Every structure is written in C-alpha cells, then in structure tokens.
Automatic annotation (TrEMBL):
UniProt keyword terms in alphabetical order: Hydrolase, Protease
Molecular-function annotations in GO: metal ion binding; peptidase activity
Name of the protein this chain belongs to: Zinc protease
Pfam families: Peptidase_M16_C (PF05193)
Residue ranges annotated for the Peptidase M16 C-terminal domain, each copy included: 17-195
Organism: hydrothermal vent metagenome
Gene3D superfamilies: Metalloenzyme, LuxS/M16 peptidase-like (3.30.830.10)
SUPFAM superfamilies with a match to the protein in the record: LuxS/MPP-like metallohydrolase
Any one of the GO BP annotations: proteolysis
Length: 290
C-alpha cells in the first residue's frame, strides 16, 4: 500500500539508495504529463502563459509511462491492538491512537472535520479540557484528521506523566466513545466552533502562499476552487444531530491502533491490564521485538 512505508525512509533504505534510484524516481513521477502548474499573484493568463512556455515548453515526458498510484481499500479492524515502544527513563509516555478515516474527497468530510473540532481539534476541545485542564496529566491533548486521496488517518494523542499512562488511555477512549451518544455535542460547543471557524477564514488567505496551498489542496481533493465561499453557510447549517450521526458512523473507540512510547518497566503491565487488545513490543521502526 502507498501509505505502508516510512515517510522519510529508514536507515537501511537510505543506505541502500543509489543515484539510479533517484533518476528512476524522477523519470517515473516528475514529468510534464504528471504535473499541474499553479500560479498565484498579481498577474493574468495572458502574462503568465508566455513565461510558462518559455521555461517549461521544452520539458518532455520520458519514453516510459508515467507512474500511477493505487489506493486499495484498507480493511477496517474489528478490535483494538497495542504497540509498545520502550524508552527507558522517560518521565512521560507518548500516546497515539489511530483508525482509518474516509478519503478527503468523501462528501461527509466537512462534517467529520467539524466533529473533530469538538473532540480534539482545538484548545477548548473535550480531549484537551479533560487531560490538560481537568486532570493536569498533559500539556495538551489532541485529535487530527490527515486527509488523503485514499483513506486517511484519524489520530488521537497526548504526552502524559508516566504514572498516568493507563488512566489517560482510558480517558481518551472514553471521550471518543461519549461523543457517539452518552455526551452528544452541545449547542454551546457548536456555537463556539462556528464562531471560531467563520471569523478565522479571512486570515487563512492573507498571503499568496496560503492561497496557493488552498488551491492545490482543492485540486487534490477534487473540490471546486471557490469551495471556501461555501464554508460560512456550511458551518451555520451544522447541528448536534448531524455531528452525532457522523460520530456514530466514523468513530471506533473499541477498534483503534494504540502506539505508546515510554519506560515499559513503569507502564507495560498497567497497559496490559486494560485488555485493549493484542499487545506487541516493537522498536522505533515498528519491527517486532521477540
């Protein structure tokens, strides 16, 4: 799967790389029949086209076909699993839980992102208010959606004081579960989220670089370039029933992949006692340690 390899490589893969690997990558992927040019600035098509032709007009594709990426559907897990990474002497444990999320082009994605704001997407979110403000176990707790052309990643995490690792895991799981029904989103949470999102929209497009990133992102996701103009109306249309439905459809608190990094002498047994699922000890590259 395209997402199944280390983003920055591994020590072994980098050592084994040679100049031919780089040339092959360029010939396969960095080519005019596999490229889109975006331009943002005080210019017009009549002005920019001659410049593009001058600088890119002689750029020709290679003789081999352009590369194509395939994104096979990832099977949704039926139960949770746990991976532990030992970091002796660490005063904190880093906790991340993850699950697959729909593609960024999914019609529900706006609603999912709105739901995430309430769960862990900002300072006043439930996860942060619980683990930081109420419990005082962490400097911050969060959740985030990582959009992609294929299925994305929905992750939840915090770095907590080492003696509260197991308790924090339960609190994260509880907040995810509660949003699905026991504690549905409130009108106060929705109102705060709407206000923050709508009022911060203009500031997101103050620079040409920001506008360029927005246009490129819309192109990847297959959205219209004027998508931003619809956002205030979309935020105003959100309601608790819609967010609850999305939470019930998307969140899987009992089928998460947990990755915990910390001093295993202090946290391993307590984590095993939670009975979240199969526990595997791995190294920093995810390789199983016997």
């Amino acid at each position: 799967h395209p997402y199944g390899s280390a983003r920055y490589g591994t020590e072994k893969s980098i050592k084994n790389m040679n100049i031919n690997d780089l040339f092959n990558f360029i010939n396969l992927w960095i080519r005019p029949d596999n490229a889109t040019i975006f331009v943002v600035g005080d210019t017009t098509l009549d002005q920019i086209i001659p410049l593009l032709e001058k600088n890119f007009g002689k750029w020709k594709p290679g003789k081999t076909p352009a590369g194509k990426k395939h994104f096979p559907e990832i099977e949704i897990m039926a139960k949770s699993r746990v991976f532990l990474v030992d970091k002796p002497g660490s005063p904190q444990a880093a906790i991340i839980a993850g699950q697959s999320a729909p593609s960024g082009s999914d019609s529900r994605f706006f609603d999912i992102k709105a739901m995430n704001e309430i769960l862990g997407g900002n300072f006043s979110s439930r996860l942060n208010m619980n683990l930081r403000e109420d419990k005082g176990w962490a400097y911050g707790a969060w959740s985030a959606l990582f959009e992609a052309r294929g299925q994305g990643l929905y992750a939840f995490g915090a770095s907590v004081q080492i003696d509260k690792t197991a308790d924090a895991i339960l609190e994260i799981q509880k907040e995810i579960s509660d949003l699905r029904g026991k504690k549905p989103p409130t009108e106060d949470e929705l109102a705060l989220m709407r206000k923050n999102k709508i009022l911060t929209l203009p500031g997101k497009f103050e620079s040409s670089q920001a506008l360029l990133g927005y246009i490129m992102d819309n192109d990847v996701k297959g959205r219209p370039y004027d998508y931003v103009e619809s956002l205030p109306e979309k935020y105003q249309a959100l309601n608790s029933e819609l967010i609850l439905k999305v939470a019930q459809d998307i969140l899987r608190p009992d089928a998460l992949t947990w990755i915990i990094v910390g001093d295993l002498d202090k946290i391993e047994q307590n984590i095993r006692n939670l009975n979240l699922g199969e526990v595997t000890i791995v190294d920093a590259e995810g390789k199983k340690i016997p």
